Amino acid sequence: MFSKLFTAALMMFGLAGSCWAQDIPDLTAEQWREDVDALVAGIERDHREAWNFVPRAEVMRLADEAAQRAGAATDAEMLVALQRIAAAVGDGHTFVDVSGLYSRYPFDVSWIEGDFYIVRSGASHGELLGGKLVAIDDTPVDQALEKLLSLVPRNENRFHEIDALSGLLTQAEPLFALGVARSPNGATFDVETADGRRERIRLAPREPSQPTEFVTIGPNGRPAAVEPPRGLRLSMLDDVAYLDFASYADLEKESAIVWSAIDRAGARALIIDFRKNRGGSLAAGREYISYAAWARSQLNRAGCLFVLTGPATFSAAMTNVTDLRRETEATIVGLPTGARPISGEQVVYSAKLSPARVGRTTSLSVRVAGRYCGDARSVDRTDD
Questions:
Q1: Stated pTM of the model
Q2: Is there a contact between 192 and 134 (Cβ–Cβ < 8 Å)?
Q3: CA-CA distance, 275 to 244, in Å (whole number)?
Q4: Residues 43, 50: contact at Cβ < 8 Å?
Q5: pLDDT per residue as tens digits for the range 310-346
Q6: DSSP 288-339
Q7: What are 235's strand-pairing partners?
């Protein structure tokens, strides 16, 4: 009875799995098998086109493999097995949300010209900044990526894969479960410095509840503190407004404050940065960002309105970028987005006993994407 009530509460509040850190569930083998069955049944029931990219037999093979491992595998390994099942479906809206469950190593990487470089690190490891990640516990990065790809939806585009891999390279439990690292409690990282030296450093992961003060490379080349992410953040660079649109959180309230400040400042140009935005409410983005920019004639002019995109730009954020390209005079700048020109509504449910959330695509819409979007090829039809 308790597990059913717990599951119902997670379903009601939806984001429960990502609002605070939790422990990886300690379940029996039979309970993990029930979660595997619940995941597959939910995908079959609610996904509009579950087998469009992958044969059903492949997903069932992964499910059978996970069920057979229950009891012998650790709880973290079982959670990773659930991720593999969801990722096999192929679209970025079908996932097991492990927010707040995995430990992370104290650095972040970004893909730059074909390699992964450390762009943020814990304050005590500033010497890592700018280094190229070469190996993890003697596993070359290329081999690590091949293993981690089993947790990445493969029917979006190459840049979605890059963004997902950037996060997985710092998650302790998946690195161990997939045979990249030798232990979930620490790993040795090989890093190539800017001058070609190879450094080795042993790091312990941080628990999800343990805050990390990050630094990045500052304007003077020295480590500089990284501000915690926020949904919408405005900076004025003389008379140019820079709007960091990282998430849709409190967008109605935050946007009113931001647009009022932009108007008072008499900004002559506007940059809207979608590079960290992985999606949210499409309607809210249109009303409070896209349409608001369109309505300001002093900014909605060629050479005055710019939109930044990158591999993390996904889902509703990608579509809002499309809105701005189509409806305004915006110039799109940056790497391709991490989504094919297909967006989906999401039904979120909780696995039967574990606190992980699962999202599944239930509707699809193909939009004219333009050259900046997805894999840089346009789509000339609309299917609803």
A1: 0.81
A2: yes
A3: 8
A4: yes
A5: 999 999 999 999 999 999 999 999 999 998 765 454 4
A6: IIIHHHHH-TTTSSTTTEEEEE-TT--THHHHHHHHHHHHS-PEEEESPPSS
A7: 242
